[in-house]
């Protein structure tokens, strides 16, 4: 089995629907910490807050500047990709309903020398707040801790 990077692991988990326990258990045995959740809003601040809260509550990050800073920048990078460069939702009558994954661990599977990194992937629907007027979008952010 080929070694995967942290981004590919986060993408795979975000795109997998249903039970992810086997995948999660495999990568957790390889020194990754993984969380998958959902968020939806017309306010990007609420999506950022949902991800930050999950990362803190699940003990993926600790309360210190370096970890919180890496998390924040990986979220903003992922949100920028998800929103295609302009992090605006409600201001332009656009809503988002998404699945997010948080993965913390080595940059490349099995490579402990690379230190700790954090990857955020957002995948879901974005578009007009009317049903049937949305489409898929994805964004990813990766930062060293």
UniProtKB/TrEMBL annotation:
<keyword id="KW-0805">Transcription regulation</keyword>
<comment type="similarity">
    <text>Belongs to the HutP family.</text>
</comment>
<dbReference type="Pfam" id="PF09021">
    <property type="entry name" value="HutP"/>
</dbReference>
<dbReference type="InterPro" id="IPR036482">
    <property type="entry name" value="Regulatory_HutP_sf"/>
</dbReference>
<protein>
    <recommendedName>
        <fullName>Hut operon positive regulatory protein</fullName>
    </recommendedName>
</protein>
<comment type="subunit">
    <text>Homohexamer.</text>
</comment>
<keyword id="KW-0694">RNA-binding</keyword>
<comment type="function">
    <text>Antiterminator that binds to cis-acting regulatory sequences on the mRNA in the presence of histidine, thereby suppressing transcription termination and activating the hut operon for histidine utilization.</text>
</comment>
<keyword id="KW-0804">Transcription</keyword>
<keyword id="KW-0010">Activator</keyword>
<dbReference type="InterPro" id="IPR015111">
    <property type="entry name" value="Regulatory_HutP"/>
</dbReference>
């Amino acid at each position: 089995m080929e070694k995967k990077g942290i981004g590919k692991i986060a993408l795979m988990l975000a795109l997998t629907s249903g039970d992810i326990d086997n995948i999660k258990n495999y990568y957790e045995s390889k020194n990754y910490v993984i969380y998958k959740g959902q968020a939806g809003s017309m306010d990007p601040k609420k999506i950022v807050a949902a991800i930050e809260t999950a990362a803190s509550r699940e003990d993926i990050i600790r309360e210190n500047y370096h970890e919180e800073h890496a998390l924040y920048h990986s979220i903003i990078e992922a949100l920028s990709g998800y929103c295609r460069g302009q992090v605006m939702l409600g201001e332009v009558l656009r809503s988002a309903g998404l699945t997010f994954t948080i993965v913390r661990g080595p940059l490349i599977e099995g490579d402990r020398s690379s230190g700790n990194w954090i990857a955020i992937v957002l995948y879901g629907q974005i578009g007009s707040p009317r049903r049937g007027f949305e489409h898929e979008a994805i964004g990813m952010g990766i930062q060293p801790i």
